[in-house]
Amino acid sequence: MKVLLILYSAGKHAADEPKLLGCTENELGIRKWLESQGHTLVTTSHKDGPNNDLDKHIVDSDIVITTPFHPGYITKERIDKAKKLKLLVVAGVGSDHIDLDYINKSDKKISVLEVTGSNVVSVAEHVVMTMLVLVRNFVPAHEMIMRGDWDVAEVAKDTYDLENKVIATVGCGRIGYRVLERLVSFNPKELLYYDYQALPKEAEEKVGAKRVIDLEELLGKADVVTINCPLHDGTKGLFNKQLISKMKKGAWLVNTARGAICVAEDVAEAVQSGQLRGYGGDVWNVQPAPKDHPWRKMANKYHAGNAMTPHVSGTSLDAQIRYAQGTKDILESFLSGKKDYKQKDVILLDGHYITKAYGEHKK
Ligand SMILES: *[C@@H]1O[C@H](CO)[C@@H](O)[C@H](O)[C@H]1NC(C)=O
């Protein structure tokens, strides 16, 4: 079988750290294993633009492995070109870079699997960190020190405590709930969540979270909002100018879910005007983000307006070990013919959505 693997390139960093598995140099650690069974592996980071490797190799690949960090976009056109494709593996979590509905509607027998749960803790930690970075005004304080300056007041005038704030998550699944669990120790005033389904009662009680059915009502109450829902037709562009105007003036917004859940220009404008005191996260509507993306330099009179990073939250070295192993497990299950996948990893099985729950999640 021919396996195509799309990853970011790490250059010299790959040699620095062999545990950096999720790069083209280290190839999730699967080359020898695949080749020893007679399979062919093609690895590349070249996924966009003219004459890219993804378009070239997808034509005769049986298996394509992508990640959310350097997403190989699996569009209708590419699906139509992929005459032999049977399995799409996402080394990580989140398959929105794949046109799932198109596969489901077509008669192609392509299965789509992700390594569910592999990086939920990594992302939840990044969310809590970003909240602290924003609320405590860390970035400008640190930049001041690096510059050689010292002006406590300049930093202090925009520095707050997370304690006693109302904190809300939009989406309360595997990541959102872990964020709430971690926030309990900060003694928030209230923890709120918005989701299409309620948490089990014990789970709600464990973190002391309250469900709010109406999104605008939730946003009107929260000092800090974190987005932890998947990207689909119902959430694309959800945080636009109109919805952001329903947030408390001067709230902080953290998004490590998917960039396209927010309208980039509207967020930048809200940061500029101070409607948002700050925005932080690691996901972008296009990845890699262009040099002139509005989120790179957006700023406001609150110095802590911007806590953006590249899409790194789910690709800590600890997470890489887990999603590399999970990818290998999925491949092994497929290549052996057993297809005894972990139920929670399966998005599409032989071309169709398998669980009702997933379909509902898309609403
Ligand atoms: C998936 O395909 C089936 C028909 O095969 C259809 O009934 C269903 O609505 C599709 N689901 C989505 C989410 O497109």
Automatic annotation (TrEMBL):
The keyword Oxidoreductase is annotated on this UniProt entry: yes
EC number(s) per entry: 1.17.1.9
GO BP, sorted A to Z: formate catabolic process
GO MF annotation list: formate dehydrogenase (NAD+) activity; NAD binding; oxidoreductase activity, acting on the CH-OH group of donors, NAD or NADP as acceptor
Superkingdom to which the source organism belongs: Eukaryota
Top enzyme category: oxidoreductase
Domain D-isomer specific 2-hydroxyacid dehydrogenase NAD-binding: 128-313
Recorded catalytic activity of this chain's protein: formate + NAD(+) = CO2 + NADH
Broad class of where this protein is predominantly found: cytoplasm
GO cellular component terms, A-Z: cytosol
UniProt cross-references to InterPro entries, sorted A to Z: D-isomer_2_OHA_DH_cat_dom (IPR006139), D-isomer_DH_CS (IPR029753), D-isomer_DH_CS1 (IPR029752), D-isomer_DH_NAD-bd (IPR006140), FDH_NAD-dep (IPR033689), NAD(P)-bd_dom_sf (IPR036291)
Residues the UniProt record annotates as site (Important for catalytic activity): R258, H311
Subcellular location: Cytoplasm
Keyword annotations of the record: Cytoplasm, NAD, Oxidoreductase
Occurrences of domain D-isomer specific 2-hydroxyacid dehydrogenase catalytic (ranges): 35-338
Residues annotated for substrate binding in this entry: V93, N119
Coiled coil segments of this chain: none
Amino acids binding NAD(+): R174, I175, D195, P230, L231, H232, D233, G234, T256, D282, H311, V312, S313, G314
Binding partners and assembly: Homodimer.
Protein family membership: Belongs to the D-isomer specific 2-hydroxyacid dehydrogenase family. FDH subfamily.
Purpose of the protein: Catalyzes the NAD(+)-dependent oxidation of formate to carbon dioxide. Formate oxidation is the final step in the methanol oxidation pathway in methylotrophic microorganisms. Has a role in the detoxification of exogenous formate in non-methylotrophic organisms.
UniProt name for this protein: Formate dehydrogenase
